Amino acid sequence: MDLTLPPRVTDRAFARLAEICEATGEDKALRVAVEGGGCSGFQYDIRLDDPAADDLVLEKDGKKVLVDAVSLPFLANAVIDYSEELIGARFVIQNPNATASCGCGTSFSV
Question: What residue stretches are annotated with the Core domain (predicted)?
Answer without folding.
Answer: 9-105
